[in-house]
Write a structure and sequence with these properties.
11% of the residues lie in helices and 52% in strands. The protein is built from one helix and nine strands. An eight-stranded antiparallel beta barrel has the order 2-3-4-5-6-7-8-9.
Length: 131
């Protein structure tokens, strides 16, 4: 009977863990960023002339700094944005965290190599990172 309890406890512990990798190797450093979206999602909206936005994403330990270089006519922003927050990777997701009380954005990791990371936010927004 004790043997079954030990086995059951191990099964429960194994099922409660996930393949979280808080800070995976190879992410640290500065990445050239490009946000891209599908123009079809914004048909009929005046003033939008570009469906991409350049920027930089820098991972440094548990901090990430995101600089997005918006411009007039950009679908994402007409201003430059500069934001620092914490981050982690859990399963197939990059999770950006503003603070404990304010969850940030969750990007699905679509591809990861040493020099390229392709992320997806919602259905039609992609963030391409390149070293």
């Amino acid at each position: 009977m004790k043997k079954h309890i030990v086995i059951l406890a191990l099964v429960i512990l194994a099922s409660c863990t996930n393949s979280t990798s808080e800070r995976p190797e190879g992410w640290d450093g500065e990445w050239t960023a490009t946000w891209v979206t599908d123009p079809a999602s914004f048909e009929g909206i005046d003033g939008i002339t570009d469906y991409t936005m350049p920027g930089k994403v820098t991972f440094n330990g548990d901090q990430v700094n995101i600089k997005a270089f918006g411009f007039e006519g950009c679908v994402f922003s007409k201003d430059t944005l500069d934001h620092s927050l914490t981050w982690k990777v859990s399963n197939d997701s990059l999770i950006l965290i503003n603070d404990e009380d304010t969850p940030g954005m969750v990007y699905t990791i679509k591809e990861k190599t040493d020099s390229k990371i392709r992320l997806q936010l919602m259905e039609d927004i992609f963030l391409n990172l390149e070293k």
